[in-house]
Amino acid sequence: MRPHCRNIERRDPLCGAQPRTGFPLTLELASPKLPKRSRVKIRQIRTLATERLGKRLARASPEELAQVLEGLNEILGN
User: Fold this and answer.
1) pLDDT at position 2, please?
2) Where are the alpha helices (DSSP H) in the chain?
3) 45 to each of 2, 6, 15, 28, 32, how far by Cα in Å?
4) d(Cα 78, Cα 49) in Å, to the nearest integer?
5) Cβ–Cβ under 8 Å, residues 76 and 68
6) What ranges in 2-61 are assigned the alpha helix state H?
7) Residue 27 and residue 71 in contact, taking contact as beta carbons nearer than 8 Å
């Protein structure tokens, strides 16, 4: 590892921390199955190998997925 990169912290696109920004950069999820308040960090969505995924906690509703896509399109300028 490069010495200047030691303090870089990995952030997950699904987060429970209080966001500093709102939509379209983040979206709060409303699923009652989630163990605590959770948000999608839309600006940090990326591809992930299925082998790296753990146990599913809940499933996003079609409305939540539509909002995530709307935010992503707004960020990308589509």
Assistant:
1) 44
2) 62-76
3) 25, 23, 12, 14, 22
4) 26
5) no
6) none
7) yes
Contacts of 56-63 with CB under 8 Å at 24 or more apart are: 57/33, 58/29, 58/31, 58/33, 58/34, 59/31, 59/33, 60/29, 60/31, 61/30, 61/31
Per-residue pLDDT, 56? 82
The whole-chain average pLDDT of the chain stands at 74
- Give the whole-angstrom CA distance, residue 31 versus residue 4: 39
Residue 27 CB-density burial (10 A; 0-12 exposed, 13-18 middle, 19+ buried): buried
pLDDT in tens, 34-67: 778 888 888 887 787 888 888 888 888 899 889 9
Query: What pLDDT shows up at residue 14?
Result: 52
Domain ranges of the chain: 9-45+58-76
**Residue 39 and residue 71: Cα distance in Å, rounded?**
13
